Amino acid sequence: MEYEEFKIADVFIIETGANISQNELNSGKTPRISVTNLNNGISGYYSDLSSKNYRIQENFISLSFLGTCFYHPYRASLDMKVHCLKPIKRCLNKYIALFLVNLFKKSFNGVYNDQISSTDLKKSYIQLPVTSGNIDFDFMENYIKNIEAKMQKLILYYNMLANRERERERERERERERERVNRAAILLIFILQILIYQTLSKRLLCR
Description:
With 207 residues, the protein is α+β, with helices and mostly antiparallel strands.
């Protein structure tokens, strides 16, 4: 597969979040995307605001000024210095988005010591797979689908091996239980033989 460089602003709609005072945010259901590298970038869940700085996006890729990057198929608000990216000519699905997220992470990992501003982002370039000079979103989708299919096969294989090992362990435990029962039976027979011997000995002495 061939790759070509594209100006990010030519391929993606780019919007950026704005600052909202923590005092204005109340607990709710809408995730807020921040610069954190944890929990898919979600810093908390809040009620929607009517403020012009409270910006809601859905089905987008977030890229923060620190280079953290995630896919959000759900409705979410953006914190300051978190950019929203949506392809101009293609609606995102999880497969295309995961491919692009990894490309963005590779492209911006360690590039900016300070921050990735919206100006920097719009002037930046990214390498994308192409077919006949056109961005091949189908390749991106199928590439991730193939990885997913391979992972599912590996998971099934692992589960099969785990089930076999559990069955072997159960069989070993059954074997150990049989051995314990046999040892107990042998001990009981031995004790019984002693008791019989002692009883017979007493009778013989009485005679």
